[in-house]
Amino acid sequence: MHPLLKLDRLSIDFRTKDGPLRVVDDVSLEIRAGEIVCLVGESGSGKTVTSLSIMRLTDYERAVISEGELLFDGRNLAHVSRKEIEALRGKRIGMIFQQPMNALDPLFSIGSQIIDAIMAHRRTSRSEARRIALDLLTKVGITEPELRLKQYPFELSGGMLQRVMIAIALSCEPDLLIADEPTTALDVTIQMQILQLIRELSRQLGMSVLLITHDFGVAVQLADRIAVMYAGKIVEQGETRKLLTQPEHPYTQGLIRSVESYQRQGGELYTIRGTIPPLSALPGGCRFHPRCEYASDRCRAEEPPVVHAGGAGREHQVACWHAAIAAEAFALYRRARQAEEAAASEDSSPQAQPKVKARHQPARSQQAPLIELRQLSKSFPLRGRLFTRQKRAVQAVDGVTLQIHERETLGLVGESGCGKTTLGRLIMQLEEPTGGEIVFEARSLRSLSASESRDIRRKMQVVFQDPAGSMNPRWRVEEIVAEPLLVHTSLREQDRERLVSETLQMVGLNPDIRTRYPIQLSGGQLQRVSIARAIILRPRFILLDEAVSALDISVQSHIVNLLKSLQRQLGLTYLFIAHGLDVVRYISDRIGVMYLGQLVELAPADELFRRPAHPYTRALLDASPSLDPDRRQPHEAREIELPSPINPPSGCRYHTRCPLASERCRREQPQLRQIGEDRYVACHDPLGAEQLKSRGMAAEGAG
Amino acid sequence: MFARTIEKPLRIEGDRRSWAWTGRRIGSREWLLAASLLILLFILLTALFPEWLATHPPAEMSMEILQPPGAAHLLGTDQFGRDIYSLLVYGSRQSLLIGVGSVLIGGLIGTLIGLIAGYLGGWTDSLLMRAVDVMMTIPGILFAILIAASLGPSLPNMMLAIGLSTFPGYARLVRGQVLSIRSSLFIDAARTIGAGHAAIIRRHIIPNCLPQLTVMATIGVGTAVLISTALSFLGLGVVREIPDWGYLLSLGRSYISIAWWISLFPGLWITLLVVAINWLGDELRNRLEPGWSGR
To answer: Tell me, what's the pLDDT at A633?
Structure first.
């Protein structure tokens, strides 16, 4: 049986002013009927272009298929007429994208968009199409489908919109679904539901899926087979479990080790050295050689061919001269890691408590906290509808009390809309709180004179998620980094320049880039520049608002290592806001979990991960895609949505989603209370309460 | 707050500053730019050094009245025997002065109002912009006529008249820009650094408004020249020994059936200047905006 889709030595060129630029080079990939294949790669690896080329959407992007074949169901699509390819689009191949909000037309109702999609390909009456649409919405797990048909895209959440997109893609029962980063813009809990849905639909309908992602965890959770792309080439592909346990290409190994090293506490993160080369300046020979531990003269000179690895495994292909050595080295690493894990799990048994606690600073309780939030609240008024006087408000942050100690990293996690970013903005005084107060260095930020306020600004800095957006696009790097100096100091120009160069070096940048503009830098470089700007005044506190979320894993590890070492060198205190749980766990000493504006749990990082006390924390942990294919969990594939913060549920806000909710939870709102040393939770009936209680008492007795 | 990967499949190496790279795609664009720059350079030279470029003293009358274009008189003569080409050359200075001066006046007033309204927002914004809206309902030329008529014809008054009738456009443009820049992340970043309002406006907001303002001001010079011509044509212009372009046009009107060149060449001359300025403005827009927009 021939495969449904076969890319055979496919190459794609972009037309640029300097001649053609090869973005996909000699890629061969097969997808059989009913199979789920993931294409994993970092930004600029060519994975998206590959996926677009299958429906020839690359035609609209100045790209041409220059070599090779693109066989769909035995037919070569590389050079068929536009008419023929249009007949396939939507009908036999469906596609979903990263941003469902942009992929739907805001002017039309959900219903009319689904019905139009159905009628474009099937000869049905409108009422019949409507029936099919209802059917599809039910199939993708949307509640109240009748109501959704009448609603407009802006009325639905991101998760629901992605379900609608899937419904539209399914409307003609395609043989192949291409999903380009379908869950990257969604929260972890929603991401899991969507992945689950895709897998179930694939099984039910016998539909093949090509999933494009940068997240190895997502690929592992979903794929039958994984192909890893690097700089326009597939460097390794194989069956998921085999690829994960016995990767042979050093790049695949590097990715896996990077992801796994987040789970290990202490020590530096594993990083792949260097950065992805731009496609316009690829190194000769093997493209990975400048970053590879095993690189030899042969790697520098000759490009390795794709070979079937290990003789027997026909499925497994790798393009590396030193695959055998690399595979052996990885096996050693695996064994060492397993031994380490075994030791760690012994450590975490109740008898070995002190070792876990060793990470926290001693005698913290005697020290005054650097930052203290007291019942901090912020509500945003909503514009009332026309002709109604009724005033409504979103309670973005609702009575949060917590302390951040000197030199500590406090992580803050929660789904989008939980108020974690607003909390950060309140601390940075970008928003005025509507209740409660913030205390910094034992001074309330409520009543400050202008000079005190300036002094505090100097000690508190921030690094945003989108480094490009946080810099004036018309300034050079040196001006950007020197801005705090201009505001707060009266240094002479040479001193300023010297300090800027020093700081750039501290964040691992070559001072030569100081004359460049933000647009000329890569994501990782930009984030380093914004870190440089944050530390140049030697502040005491830095807010890291999703500071590494937008970065590729190999870049992210470098930045996280940098942040950790800067913290040690400069004695910094961090508030680390993120939704990637692995990163938060690795970098934080303590972690706070927020839900709908409230702090629901606060605990030391390891404790939180090992023994979550709040059901919501547990749900977040479970939803985080792990690298263990055995941990694929039968999740609820139906939509479970975040309630609106405008109209939060009564009682415990989580009760609508909580599997353990009781009558009491619906009536009475639980307060944040202490359940153990340094552990707080807002739940009537915390998980593992018995165990904690006994240990808490034991700790008291010992103290 | 959404996670997203920063997709950058095409990193073009080397200098990516707007001037260096955007225009290279299409060759015809550059021809247009070259042509308009050439025209503008010539007219600028006539304004600076008319005595070099003119063939006759401008006020010199002669017996050769109403001569058609020829070797002696490049663009013919008027009813007083003055050389039309030389008159046009000598008229440049005043027209350009009015053009640039009125744009400066209108641009400064408009920018100031736009900045205040956009940055402060709230009541100030509503109040200022409603006032500007009212100004916009009055046709610019009518307003200029009103001012010119009430203040009397002189060069500064002419600039003031045209400047006052064009400032609402600048105010609206700047306010819109300020509103969008004010909400960008780098303004938040500057605030957290501790920069005050004055520093934010001076160092972040104004520089980011400048490209759009430059484009509008460039095209504004052309518009101002047109308005001043129209005012002169209506007899509200500055009366001098040397007639300006608009006055020339109106002079030629009576002789249009026997001496078409008296009106045609001044008309063409003005058209050429305005078109060249508009081309330049469009090209500036193409070069200054795409690389930076979307932020």
So the answer is: 60
Range of the domain at B271: 78-288
Query: How far is C-alpha A304 from the geometric centre of its chain's CA atoms?
Result: 32
A597 with A622, same domain: the answer is yes
- Which among B3, B25, B189 has the least Cβ separation from residue A185? B3
Residue A678 lies in a domain: yes
Residue A294 corresponds to which tokens in the numbers above? 């095993």
Provide the pLDDT for residue A4. 93
Q: How confident is the model at residue B129, as a pLDDT?
A: 94
Domain CATH code at residue B106? 1.10.3720.10
Domain assignment present for B127: yes
Q: Are residues A200 and A134 in the same domain?
A: yes
Interchain pair B2, A185: CB under 8 A: yes
The residue type at A585: R
A531 & A547 share domain: no
Residue stretches of chain A with pLDDT short of 50: 312, 350-363, 696-703
Residue B11, domain member (yes or no): no
Distance CA A286, CA A303 (A): 5
Whether residue B234 lies inside any domain: the answer is: yes
Which of B193, B209, B288 would you mutate first to test chain A, the one with the most A CBs within 10 A?
B193
Residue B23 above 50 pLDDT?
no
ipTM: 0.76
Under an 8 A CB cutoff, do B5 and A552 touch?
yes
CB contact under 8 A, A416 and B1: yes
The domain that holds A146 is classified in CATH as 3.40.50.300
The total number of structural domains that make up chain B: 1
- Among A288, A197, A190, CA closest to A235: A288
Are both A299 and A434 inside the same structural domain? no
Is residue B240 a part of any domain in this protein? yes
Q: Chain centroid to CA A311: how far?
A: 37
Closest C-alpha to B141, from B108, B172, B106, B166: B166
Closest CA of chain B from A69, distance in Å: 22
Using CB atoms, which residue from A487, A520, A579 is nearest to B193? A487
H or E element in which residue A201 lies: helix A188-205
- Identify the domain containing residue A56 by its residue range: 5-223
Whether residues A13 and A103 fall in one domain:
yes
Contacts of A401 (CB under 8 A, 6+ apart): A373, A374, A375, A376, A436, A599, A672
Q: Which pair of tokens denotes residue A420?
A: 């974690």
Q: Which of A23, A474, A486, A551 to mutate to test the interface with B (most CBs of B within 10 A)?
A: A474
- Asked if B192's CB is within 8 angstroms of A461's CB, the reply is yes
Q: Are A140 and A197 in contact (CB under 8 A)?
A: yes
Q: What is the CA radius of gyration of chain B?
A: 23
Please give the DSSP secondary-structure letter assigned to residue A578. Answer: -
Q: What is the number of structural domains in chain A?
A: 4
Flag whether A461 is in a domain.
no
Q: State whether A586 and A572 are in the same domain.
A: yes
Please tell me which of the candidates A14, A462, A466 has its beta carbon nearest to residue B192: A462
- The string of DSSP letters for A292-341 reads -TT--HHHHHSPPPPEETTSS-TT-EE--TTHHHHHHHHHHHHHHHHHHH
Q: Same domain for A654 and A521?
A: no
Largest CA distance in chain B: 82
Is the same domain home to A404 and A319?
no
Using alpha carbons, select from A360, A358, A464, A470 the residue that is nearest to residue A410.
A360
Contacts of A551 in chain B (CB under 8 A): 6
Task: Indicate whether B61 pLDDT > 80.
Answer: yes
